[in-house]
Design a protein that fits this description.
The protein is about 45% helix and about 15% strand. The protein has about 425 residues and is of the alpha/beta class. The chain has 3 domains: about 150 residues, Nitrogenase molybdenum iron protein domain (Rossmann fold, 3-Layer(aba) Sandwich), CATH 3.40.50.1980; about 150 residues, 3-Layer(aba) Sandwich (Rossmann fold); about 30 residues, no CATH class. It starts with 6 loop residues before the first strand and ends in a 6-residue tail after the last helix.
């Protein structure tokens, strides 16, 4: 890859933000056929339950199961997988799980209430979802870290039953994924995937329990199915391609920065990697590092395509302007590779996760730092947050009026209700007001 293959932008150019918008805009993909296919699958699962689920699983995953019951992966298999994987892998999974749990424990919200002077009680009752579904990609793709990041917050929240689904094309199943499920406390695991698995979790079948919320990544069919069943169940988010934006003052090793950009570009060809710096010479050094290191990467072609099509090296006037660009982009992952990252972080308003300092590679957050790696993409960090314990908790308002409080509030409610023409509301409140 030559230095000229990566887009170079400069904030001093008059049309800079127009260029940036063009860079950030995802390529439009026609998904009308996908939507039709997914819609048909969901309808079949709703009407025929296990029969349709078995048919789709055997067809799409080239399986020969005789019943959906056969597709449940037993607790024994999970324990066997945990004992089978290399000790080093098991230790790494257990350490990552421990750190994710410790972080998640701090997110847990408790119920609260207070009493007013007249004895009226107001508050909030926090309860966990009863049952959640976790989708995990399967086959050649093995993402045990995804199991840990999605399952542990659910269990910390107090979810009673966590159902995991994972496709096993031609019976191929990842022992590390099953081991991660055991470590994270998943309750039941089914060897099913695709839109049919999402539909089964959303509506339930004779064998698959209906859940309250579905979380976890998947391909376009899975993402489309999650969007279609939203409302019937909750979902975490519709995630787009992975993103990283790095703000650097020019003092970090350019090889480190190049590899951090690669760490996201290697996900897929649509992933996006952006470097922002006020140091034009440093941007050139990083471009040289990219050219030098890329041929050594195992996923060279994926990285190359991502870097040519969606990456950019952006020169800004100073770090203050770098922050403005970062907030505009609202990236999934934001690295602040600068001398005093905590000060700079105070000005960041939109980012999924902020990695502070030269030694904090984004990859640490993907696997074992502790915060969740399920993050908002496609600029949705402007209004969304990382997956957490709070995504598996519900809040119910508590109101208990004393006799005195009912009379006092009743007069206000009556006035407001009559002003809206809702006289039944008014009279319902007035019944609690003592007659003089």
């Amino acid at each position: 890859m030559s230095n000229t293959d990566i887009k170079r932008l400069n904030s001093s150019e008059e049309d800079f933000y127009a260029q940036l918008d063009s860079l950030l805009a995802p390529e439009e993909v026609s998904d009308s056929q996908v939507a039709k296919t997914v819609g048909d699958i969901i309808s079949a699962i709703r009407s025929r339950g296990d029969d349709a689920l078995l048919e789709f699983t055997n067809r799409f995953d080239r399986m020969q199961a005789g019943s959906v019951e056969e597709l449940e992966i037993s607790k024994f298999k999970l324990l066997e997988a945990l004992d089978t994987i290399p000790t080093e892998q098991r230790d790494a999974l257990e350490r990552a799980a421990s750190r994710v749990q410790a972080y998640a424990e701090r997110q847990k919200v408790e119920s609260w209430s207070y009493k007013e002077a007249d004895g009226t009680l107001l508050g909030q009752q926090v309860t966990a979802l009863e049952r959640a579904g976790l989708y995990v990609p399967g086959g050649k793709a093995a993402y045990p870290s995804s199991v840990i990041m999605n399952a542990i917050p659910a269990k910390v929240a107090g979810v009673s039953e966590l159902i995991m689904v994972v496709p096993t094309p031609e019976g191929v199943v990842s022992d590390t994924v099953l081991a991660a499920a055991e470590i994270a406390g998943v309750d039941r695991v089914f060897a099913i995937g695709g839109a049919q698995a999402v539909a089964a979790l959303a509506y339930g079948t004779q064998t698959i329990p209906r859940v309250d919320k579905i979380v976890g990544p998947g391909n376009i069919y899975v993402a489309t199915a999650k969007a279609m069943v939203f409302g019937q169940v909750g979902i975490d988010m519709i995630a787009g391609p992975s993103e990283i934006l790095i703000v650097c003052d020019g003092q970090t090793d350019p090889d480190w920065i190049a590899m951090d950009l690669f760490s996201q570009a290697e996900h897929d060809e649509d992933a996006q990697a952006i470097l922002v710096s006020p140091d034009a010479e440093f941007l050139g050094w990083v471009a040289n590092s990219i050219s030098k290191l890329l041929p050594k990467m195992e996923r060279e072609e994926i990285i190359r395509t991502s870097m040519v099509n969606r990456a950019a090296l952006i020169q800004v006037r100073d770090l203050d302007e770098a922050v403005q660009v970062a907030n505009y982009v609202a990236p999934e992952h934001l690295e602040l590779s600068v001398e005093d990252p905590q000060i700079l972080a105070e000005s960041i308003h939109h980012a999924g996760a902020i990695f502070m300092g030269r030694y904090t590679a984004e990859a640490l957050g993907d696997y074992c730092a502790g915060p969740n790696h399920v993050l908002p993409t496609a600029r949705t960090a402007r209004f969304s947050s990382p997956l957490g314990v709070y995504d598996f908790q519900k809040r119910s308002s508590l109101i208990q009026c004393s006799a005195k409080g009912a009379a006092d509030l009743g007069r206000t409610a009556s006035t407001l209700a009559r002003g809206e023409g809702l006289t039944a509301h008014a009279q319902s409140a007035e019944y609690r007001i003592p007659k003089k």
